[in-house]
Amino acid sequence: MLQNFTVIEGNIGSGKTTLCKKLSEEFGANLILEEFEENPFLSDFLEDQNINPLGVELQFLIDRFHQLRASFDNSKPTIADYFIEKSLIFSSNNLSTIEKNLFDSYYTVLFEKITEPNLLVYLSVSSDRLLENIKKRGRKIEEKLTYTYLESIHNSYLNYLSNKQNESVLILDVTNIDFVGNTVDYEKLKDVIVNYREKEATQIKF
36: which DSSP letter? Predict the structure, then answer.
């Protein structure tokens, strides 16, 4: 069975949203999906990462906070395709030192009001595979994303997760499986997630 609150995290194009939808449908869970298209700064930023990164990150932080505060129904499990800690990871990668200091002051206040997940899953995918996935789904907003940018985000995730202590974190390398189009691959991935034991530090390569 799913944990009370499970988060599926991953880089852009990792398949986290699709996996969340599949698990939510199968287990009848609450589903929280990031509303990234609502961010008015995002389109310009994805085309050029020097265009208003602080605006992008602050808008995401505010939107994530409000969504995570409003979306819980404790009568059934909840699964989300992001957690508010994502804001720390992307802001570390995208902001200057002075911008990051300002951002962190807002983050600290909001984070204390958020329910933390029982399990945080990170889908690790090679940047080459991510670019293939991004091209396949054909979102115009993502056309200018580069290997270098995706790689830097991936490394930021791994660095952040490696420093988390006394929390349940599951890192799954899914580069070589197709859990979206292959039922067998999906079942393998699902079994690992639902059979996870609390605070059992785990890294698995499929």
Answer: G
